[in-house]
Design goal:
The complex is a heterodimer of chains A (619) and B (160). Chain A is an alpha/beta fold and 619 residues long. Chain A has 24 helices and 19 strands. In chain A, the strands form six sheets. Chain A has a five-stranded mixed sheet. A four-stranded mixed sheet of chain A has the order 2-1-3-4, with helices on one face. In chain A, strand 5 and strand 6 form a beta hairpin. The model of chain A has no long low-confidence stretch (mean pLDDT 93). Chain B has two domains: 57 residues, no CATH class; 87 residues, Glutaredoxin. Chain B has a four-stranded mixed sheet with strand order 2-1-3-4, covered by helices on one side. The longest helix of chain B is centred in the last third of the chain and has 16 residues. The model of chain B has no long low-confidence stretch (mean pLDDT 90). The chains are: A alpha/beta (619), B alpha+beta (160). At the A-B interface, helix 2, strand 9, strand 11, strand 15 and helix 18 of A face helix 2, helix 4, helix 5 and helix 6 of B.
Chain lengths: 619, 160
């Protein structure tokens, strides 16, 4: 590794050539996913076992072992890919390591049981590139996640990293950079969808010598983790975008505001900043161009509202994260009163691609008003959960059924929730809609940061609404009374309904309260908090009515309204449920159907979970 | 809890005494002591020359901070939407049943604190729980006791 500062525009190309020349593409390399998802499935132990197996079998020098970031297919983790053939192994365990080295690495033999099986066709798939989950995607931002080691800047440089920075600094004026971004039509990926180029220009033209830029990595929407995935997979792509943006805007300091709940992402982006500094890509006189920039990593302290830009800036300044009224917009008066430009992680990550390939290339993807691709986290009751990158305008149905693989357990899917606590639930009947900023807004939801939570018939929509309101009630900063009191009241009404105390007129009351909260709140949190309630009422009114009029939860979720029950015809009397029951509520004789005593039952659900015969149901 | 002033001072010096350093300093103090001891907060206010009420305001506002001492092991259950639709509430109930605590509370013997968070970003593996930084993906109600036992046993060994 060279630790030399690169001091001119040619140095980077030279380094890239050297890196590529020093690589032997015939050496097999094993890529193990080390993203938070796979780590939760102990991929670190897999990597250690592989390391040991390589040493034990005396082939360590002939094989490259890499821990990469998240390639997105979290459902099948821990993931392992062997290059150059791109043999794809899923759900790898430490005990598989020795066999992988002795069979696949040494003899090119494929281990059948580690292959991914297409749930549609039952076919075993050998190569990563043939997996439908990846094949249907257009992976640009995610292309290198899973190919490069996020801890090695050299890996990023070798795949063409920092080329765009070189181009911007030496071949383009700041105005030309802004014009290119404007022409591309890139809209902010944080959810609001404002034109990035226009935003940059406002900040560039604002009066003042000191200007700041901020990378918003406070990914607070529950159910969304694309920012985390991108940072853990390819942190330098974000830094490169920031550098180009700072050059265009005329800023010399950037804050990356990132949640402390993402410890691995924090570690990786901090490390990337340090490496970039060592190479002379950050600091003073970057690449000898005369342009200075430094990046500071600032941790969020667990407040959802800090994803809102004015609250975020208050938090960086060391105050409580309360939003303030706009105007003045951050471009006029932001951090410490100076002009400030804030963009989301994915927006920054787009910039190098746009500078490298040009605005025209970018505009060819997506729809008329929403250009490019975007990353969704497809999660919930769907088969293939993970990060998915698709062109804007793809239909919701294609996203969920073709890429997501449809329902995870044979249940009927009924809705998808987008946009987190600010978004809404879109029923299955509207899944022909294209995914873009404007169509989702018309349907009552928003694009948000790209979380897509798929819900099936076992999800109660009233409970979902209650869940989101509980979230917003907890996260409301308390500044506006409409949000502080109104959201609380809406939550209480929903809570009563789910517990069987709903009354006639509650639905109408929720609707009018919802409108009042929307009108009376200063920031996005309050203005959008009623959305989950209003959309579920709009599309699933019958479920509300069943709770209120019949005191019944059709999905079998709301605990006060359900009874666990064993179907005698299905129960072979294995006694497993009775052994797990902590309330001694299940009794019976071995070999005979068991019975649950509803008076003793604590409704913990363990009997239903452990039953191998689907004999436990709720009524 | 006795705090070492020098430790707090070192943290403050690292993050600077300007107001901007307040949240990073508090985060590190929280990491060190698992909560914000009153003595540390007083020291922060003194050194940074800001009113103690300002320090408390920030400590109260952000959810990462705890003003109460916390248990030896921290259990975090993700209640993000994806985990919610896959039954994360059942995990919270089950932990509560085994340890007799609710989210935010600590067991009487100070061995476990239960926390609920809004999203850990491993939505694809929901429901997820984390104990002392170790992630347990695809959790099930029936697995909770086994996971907790690992930490309880360690406790017994340590007390021998």
């Amino acid at each position: 590794m060279t630790n030399q500062r690169i001091s001119d525009d040619l140095g980077l190309n030279k380094l890239r050539e050297e890196l590529l020349a020093s690589r032997d593409s015939t050496i097999p390399s094993i890529m193990v996913c080390g993203g938070t998802g796979c780590l939760a499935l102990a991929s670190d132990e897999v990597a250690q076992a592989l390391e040991k197996a390589l040493v034990d079998q005396g082939v360590k020098a002939k094989v490259e072992l890499k821990t990469t970031g998240c390639p997105g297919f979290c459902e099948q983790g821990p993931l392992l890919v062997i290059h150059p053939e791109r043999i794809f192994y899923v759900r790898v365990k430490p005990k598989d390591a020795a066999e992988i080295v002795s069979k696949t690495i040494a003899n090119g033999e494929i281990i059948e049981r580690l292959l991914y099986e297409d749930p549609m066709t039952g076919e075993k798939i050998v190569h990563e590139t043939d997996v439908p989950f990846y094949k249907e995607q257009t992976r640009i931002l995610l292309k290198n996640s899973g190919l490069i080691d996020p801890r090695r800047i050299e890996d990023y440089i070798a795949v063409g990293g920092y080329k765009a920075l070189n181009k911007a600094l030496f071949e383009m004026t700041p105005q030309e950079v802004i014009d290119e971004v404007k022409r591309s039509g890139l809209r902010g990926r944080g959810g609001a969808g404002f034109s990035t180029g226009v935003k940059w220009e406002l900040c560039r033209k604002a009066k003042g010598d000191t200007k700041y830029i901020i990378c918003n990595a406070d990914e607070g929407d529950p159910g969304a983790f694309q920012d985390r995935g991108l940072i853990e997979g390819n942190p330098h792509s974000i830094l490169e975008g920031i550098m180009i943006g700072a050059y265009a805007i005329g800023a010399s300091k950037c804050f990356v505001y990132i949640r402390h709940e993402y410890p691995l992402a924090v570690e990786l982006i901090s490390f990337a900043v340090q490496q970039a500094r060592e190479y002379g890509l950050l600091g003073e006189d970057i690449l000898g161009s005369g342009f200075d920039l430094d990046i500071v990593i600032q941790l969020g302290a667990g407040a959802f509202v800090c994803g809102e830009e004015t609250a975020l800036m208050a938090s960086i300044e060391g105050r409580i994260g309360e939003p303030r009224a706009r105007p003045p917009y951050p471009a006029q008066s932001g951090l410490w009163g100076k002009p400030t430009n804030i963009n989301n992680v994915k927006t920054w990550a787009w910039i190098p691609h746009i500078i490298n390939n040009g605005a025209e290339w970018f505009t060819q993807m997506g729809t008329e008003k929403s250009k490019g691709t975007t990353i969704f986290s497809v999660v919930g009751n769907v088969k293939n959960t993970g990060l998915v990158e698709v062109p804007m305008g793809i239909s919701i149905r294609r996203l969920i059924e073709d890429i997501g693989g449809g329902a995870s357990n044979g249940n009927k899917l009924k809705a998808v929730q987008t946009g987190g606590p600010s978004g809404g639930c879109i029923p299955e009947s509207l899944w022909h809609l294209p995914v873009d900023y404007d169509s989702l807004r018309e349907a009552g939801s928003i694009m948000g940061s790209g979380g897509m939570i798929v819900m099936d018939e076992s999800t109660c929509m009233v409970d979902v609404a209650r869940y989101f309101l509980e979230f917003s009630k907890f996260e409301s900063c308390g500044k506006c009374s409409a949000c502080r009191e109104g959201v609380r009241r809406m939550y209480e009404i929903l809570d009563y309904i789910t517990r069987g105390y709903g009354e006639e007129g509650d639905i109408e009351l929720l609707e009018s309260l919802g409108q009042a909260v929307k009108t009376g709140s200063l920031c996005g949190l309050g203005q959008t908090a009623p959305n989950p309630v209003l959309t579920t009422i709009r599309y699933f009114r019958d479920e509300y009515e069943a709770h209120i009029k019949e005191k019944r939860c059709p999905a079998g979720v709301c605990k006060e309204l359900i009874t666990f029950y064993i179907v005698p015809e299905k129960c072979p009397g294995c006694s497993l449920c009775a052994r797990y029951c902590s309330e001694d509520a299940i009794s019976g004789e071995k070999g005979q159907p068991y019975v649950i005593d509803p008076n003793k039952c604590g409704r913990c659900g363990v009997c239903r979970e452990v039953c191998n015969f689907d004999a436990v149901i709720v009524e | 809890m006795e705090i070492e002033i020098s430790k707090v001072d070192a943290i403050l010096d690292k993050h600077g005494l300007a107001e901007q350093g307040l949240i990073p300093s508090l985060l590190e103090i929280q990491d060190t002591y698992h909560y914000l001891p009153p003595g540390a907060l007083t020291r922060v206010a003194e050194r940074m020359k800001i009113p103690a009420i300002r320090v408390h305001q920030v400590a109260e506002f952000y959810k990462a901070f705890s003003l109460e001492p916390r248990g030896k092991h921290i259990i975090t259950v993700c209640l993000g939407t994806a985990c919610h639709v896959r039954g994360a509430e059942y995990l919270v109930d089950q932990i509560g049943r085994i340890l007799d605590i609710t989210p935010g509370a600590t067991t009487k013997d100070m061995s476990f604190t239960l926390e609920a968070v809004n999203c850990l970003g491993c939505c694809a593996l929901g429901p997820v729980m984390v104990v002392d930084g170790k992630y347990y993906g695809n959790m099930a109600i029936s697995k909770v006791e086994r996971v907790l036992n690992r930490y309880m046993e360690r406790e017994v060994v340590a007390n021998d």
